[in-house]
């Protein structure tokens, strides 16, 4: 990215605030903005409640205008484990349902710091495990039709759910779509092993300082941030994971760690496709559907969903956009 472009994009970056102190303000601002669209979106979803243990978890279900397959997309929203919810992601999930032709079930998992790790993961894991064990209760004919999808912190949760299902000996999902996920604990430009942290960690949509603030709110214990269910790239075993589509953003500080996770999965013998959307900022899945970045991403997502449900003889070679 040339300096002029970087300066121009910096004008549209989120205001620089101390997320540790101001996460409540950010939540209120997000919900206010989402409320502006609510009247026109009220008929685009059905809301239900899932019971996991002694907890009630809201799930918002979006149906496509034209259904084009049997898949069900179980979606975990982004927001650094601290912000975002099913309300603020309503337009994103409605677009996802319409652009894929698949129902989308958006999970309202618990947020930090009120509910630090592993609360949010427990919610996502509990719902996924329940659907896999009793898909008919949710009107799903075949558990193999369940596809985990998450963006940013939600991509982190999807990856962690898949690892934990394997670790605890449960049948896992067969496919997952990870959108610019958080996979590593270190986002300090002086110590991070990833160049994208140094190249894109300031003045853009997401900064190094914000990621670290989110991580500290989600997992206050610095040593625990290195655990595989918090930082999936720290796992010792990457085997027996779902067929994976990992989409990264070219101008995102999380780009390299996400792509490194895709390579780790592939090296362990899993089927993996890594696709980099060039000239895209973190969070681009929330852009209007007519943007080039959205068209690029959904072309790859739909091709991934349309692939026959079986393992290939050899793992796919990762793909990347121009400049990868």
Would you give an account of this structure?
The protein is α/β, with parallel strands linked by helices. The chain has one domain: Rossmann fold (3-Layer(aba) Sandwich), CATH 3.40.50.1820. The protein contains ten helices and eight strands. It has an eight-stranded mixed beta sheet with strand order 1-2-4-3-5-6-7-8, with helices on both faces. Strand 7 (243-251), helix 9 and strand 8 form a beta-alpha-beta unit. Residues 73-285 form the Alpha/beta hydrolase fold-3 domain. It comes from Gulosibacter chungangensis. GO terms for molecular function: hydrolase activity. InterPro entries: AB_hydrolase_3, AB_hydrolase_fold, GDXG_lipolytic_enzyme.
Characteristic key phrases:
hydrolase; alpha/beta; AB_hydrolase_fold; AB_hydrolase_3; 324 residues; hydrolase activity; 17% strand; Rossmann fold; 10 helices; 35% helix; eight-stranded mixed beta sheet
Number of helices, counting only DSSP H or I runs of 4 residues or more:
10
Oligomer: single chain
Strand order of the largest sheet: 1-2-4-3-5-6-7-8
Sum up the overall morphology in one term.
globular
Strand content: 15-25%
How far apart, in Å, are the first and last alpha carbons? 13 Å
CATH fold descriptor: Rossmann fold
Q: Which CATH architecture would you pick?
A: 3-Layer(aba) Sandwich
Sequence stretches where pLDDT stays below 50 over 5 or more residues: 310-324
The overall average pLDDT, rounded, is 90
Keywords: Hydrolase
GO molecular function, one term: hydrolase activity
Protein name: Alpha/beta hydrolase
InterPro entries: AB_hydrolase_3, AB_hydrolase_fold, GDXG_lipolytic_enzyme
């Amino acid at each position: 990215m040339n300096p002029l472009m970087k300066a121009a994009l910096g004008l549209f970056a989120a205001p620089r605030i101390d997320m540790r102190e101001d996460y409540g303000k950010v939540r209120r601002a997000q919900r206010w903005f989402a409320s502006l669209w609510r009247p026109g979106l009220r008929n685009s979803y059905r809301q239900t409640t899932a019971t996991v243990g002694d907890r009630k978890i809201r799930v918002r279900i979006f149906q496509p205008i034209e259904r084009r397959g049997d898949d069900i997309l179980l979606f975990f929203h982004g927001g650094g484990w601290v912000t975002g919810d099913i309300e603020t992601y309503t337009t994103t999930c409605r677009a996802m349902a319409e652009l894929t032709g698949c129902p989308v079930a958006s999970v309202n998992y618990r947020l930090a710091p009120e509910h630090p790790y592993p609360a949010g993961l427990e919610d996502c894991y509990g719902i996924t495990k329940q659907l896999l064990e009793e898909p008919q209760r949710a009107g799903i004919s075949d558990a193999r039709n369940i596809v985990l999808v998450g963006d940013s912190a939600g991509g982190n949760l999807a990856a962690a759910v898949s690892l934990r299902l394997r670790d605890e000996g449960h049948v896992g999902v067969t496919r997952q779509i990870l959108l610019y996920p958080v996979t590593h604990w270190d986002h300090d430009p002086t110590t991070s092993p990833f160049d994208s942290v140094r190249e894109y960690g300031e003045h853009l949509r997401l900064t190094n300082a914000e990621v670290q603030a989110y991580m500290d709110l989600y997992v206050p214990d610095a040593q625990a941030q290195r655990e595989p269910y918090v930082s999936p790239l720290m796992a010792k075993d990457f085997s027996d994971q779902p067929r994976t589509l990992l989409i990264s953003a070219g101008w995102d500080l999380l780009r390299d760690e996400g792509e490194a996770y895709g390579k780790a999965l592939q090296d362990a013998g899993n089927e993996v496709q890594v696709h980099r959307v060039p000239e895209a900022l973190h969070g681009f899945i929330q852009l209007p559907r007519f943007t080039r970045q959205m068209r690029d991403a959904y072309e790859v997502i739909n091709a991934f969903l349309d692939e026959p449900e079986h393992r290939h003889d050899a793992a796919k070679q990762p793909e990347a956009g121009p400049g990868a």
